[in-house]
Amino acid sequence: MLVSATEMLRKAKEGHYAVGQFNINNLEWTKAILQTAQEMNSPVILGVSEGAGKYMSGFKTVAAMVSAMIDDLGITVPVALHLDHGTYEGAKKCIEAGFSSVMFDGSHYPFDENVEKTTEIVKTAHAKGISVEAEVGSIGGVEDGVVGTGEVADPAECAKISALGIDFLAAGIGNIHGVYPENWAGLDFDALAKIQQATSGMPLVLHGGTGIPEEMIKKAISLGVSKINVNTECQLTFAAATRKYIEEGKDQKGKGYDPRKLLGPGFEAIKETVRLKINLFGSAGKA
Ligand code: 13P
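Above: inputs. Below: predicted complex with 1,3-dihydroxyacetonephosphate.
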């Protein structure tokens, strides 16, 4: 069932768990994530970066694939199709294309411009029942060519942007996209607590979910994080499983080169990664 992310995150907040956003890149990724969420009776958010959207031919193709797949696979758990780190133009396109949720990432604009553009996106999205994620501060690292400096969000700015009627907020707290460096200082829980206090119960989003230690994930959820984004980890496990299959020469045995066989181990690896995260985030059985 394709729904906005508002209700599932409100319930997550109340129930002290988080819903996973898993980024998709193609049909295999989408099917693996949807099937795992269904098997675990968990709500789920499919994240689509602008780069991945382009790779898959465009947002309309993505929206059509996801809604048809939900139908064909008999997926009954709540699924949100969400634009990840959208530009202003990208968010507008996704609202038209049939996404049920969008992130407008205006964190690199001067704050007033972020407020202005977020307000506009909220108006357009809410008119169609589509949820909106905004960002203040920035997530470190690089995702799909978007470079973030990793600036910790200012609670006063978080409060102002939350008052615009957004549905959930990404606030930088020392998190980074991609693999964390050895010398990473960890999440800034003081900042997180202040942000949650300043935004009076707004569901918060933790980007850069790959490689954050389990205790930090649990503490972040206890301090108000209701949505956790995971991308790189599925890519790494998919790549490792595919490499193993080829290195073992399995693609050269019988019809092992058939893409339905060749991509099988990677598909199962994504399912296993998603399963582990859903268990860690506590959303199993909450659909
Ligand atoms: P990772 O790639 O570090 O898991 O981050 C995903 C993310 O935050 C998507 O916006």
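The pocket of 1,3-dihydroxyacetonephosphate is lined by residues 23, 47, 84-85, 143, 177-178, 207-210, 229-233 (CB under 6 Å).
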